[in-house]
Amino acid sequence: MKKRGRGIATIMFGFGYGEGFPDHSIAAIEIKEQGPILVKTAAADVGQGVLTVLTQIAAEVLRVAPDRIVLSAGDTALTKNAGSTSATRQTYFTGSAVQKAAEGVLALLYHYGSLALHCNHPELVVKDGRVYRYDRPDHFMSYQELARLAHEKGELLQAEASFFPRTDAPDPETGQGERVYVAYTFMTQIAEVEVDTATGLVEVLRFDTALDLGKALNPQAVEGQIEGGTVMGMGMALMEEQVIKAGITLNPDLTGYLIPTALDCPPFYSRLVENKDAAGPFGAKGIGEPVTIGATPALANAIYAAIGIRFFELPITPDKIIKALRQEQGTNG
Amino acid sequence: MQIRLTVNGEERVVETTATTRLLDLLRTDLKLTGTKEGCGKGECGACTVLLNGQLVASCLLLAPQADRAEIITIEGIGSAEGLDPIQESYLEAGAVQCGFCTPGMILASKKLLEENPRPTVEEIRRGLSGNLCRCTGYHKIIAAVRLSAQKMADKGEGKDE
Fold first, then answer.
1. pLDDT for the residue A240
2. How many pairs of residues across A and B have Cβ atoms under 8 Å apart?
3. pTM for this entry
4. Which pLDDT belongs to residue B156?
5. Cβ separation B129–A263 shorter than 8 A
6. Which of the residues A33, A145, A227, A289 is marked catalytic?
7. Which residues of A252-287 are buried (b: 16+ CB within 10 A; e: fewer)?
């Protein structure tokens, strides 16, 4: 028999290292006499899309199209510490550092622009890679020409910025603190499943997600992260199990250690809740880990709703489901 | 030993050994690094290429097995200036995250759409089930294949007119 059930999970997640650790990120942006605008960051993109988002942030602040920006990501000769791609922190931390560096460069564009065009900065328009006076739009200087002007003075059209927010260690007695994390992300997920009571197989029919992320800088990438994270949580709930015996992993391969395939994954319906309550770039918060965490309890609850059995050990594999169903039958019979 | 094969429409004569994997011939000898090595044991699909029109895991084939064969790798699909409709669709649907599974996914998508130009979602899932992805959740990859089918159908209809 196939039985359906729905389960819900709600989480809150404090991101960044928090708890008083010196978590921070440094970024720099340089405009040269030729070529695109260079964003120097050590932030590592492992598929979550931070480099796309950093490009967008720099382009937005500097008022140019994103294709005018290049990143020197991962080049340790050019970059300073951006911290780890972990703790759901890169958009918030490096995004903020890039935003501040871009604001520094924007101020320099006004500075050199007012020198070159002999006016006060409120009289200037800085837009689409050009600087000009409101009353003389045809008489413009490009950002690159202003870089040359800076170089003639022995200066660089470059700004470096750090984002270094304070957090507090929680009280060891009470666990409380004034600002233990920089901000919190909130999420609710609902999983719908169908459990085959003959085989123990769990089919995930759909996942609905509502994610309060402050501001979605790139909604398509956010959806991608929700879907990917949820599928990792689904793997943890239903199939992923490292078998270790005497210190040796017995299933160090993808035949013995199963991860979800295209056949296992449901359709996703995601709602992005833009409630700007934090000081991230344009109000954005981190979402990486939150979206991997809710799926597992939501699925355990959905399985409970379908067959009335609670599982306290992951993954909830078909053999565990069959065994539990038989035990229950035995008890009832 | 010497083998002769056609790679992305170009005839190549390559000096190789009996124990060289096709994957290494492509990546190391021919410098076609678009084909990725994931698990190295035929489980993940990252090294997928087309051999005489069939999807194969290039990590499981020895280079001499590709003697006189016709190979298509990701480098043979579209170009930076003129993307294949499948590649276009992957970009538009947001189906690329870290990108490591993408070359294999695109070749599997191509093969699927050649055999079945209007697949259902279930058929797409089945067609891509040999290719693992760890960061997208597959939803947008499936959407990309549906979009590709639409684009290719629109193009085909355009040709008939």
1. 98
2. 77
3. 0.94
4. 81
5. yes
6. A289
7. eebeebbbbbbebbbebebebeeeeebebbbbbbbb
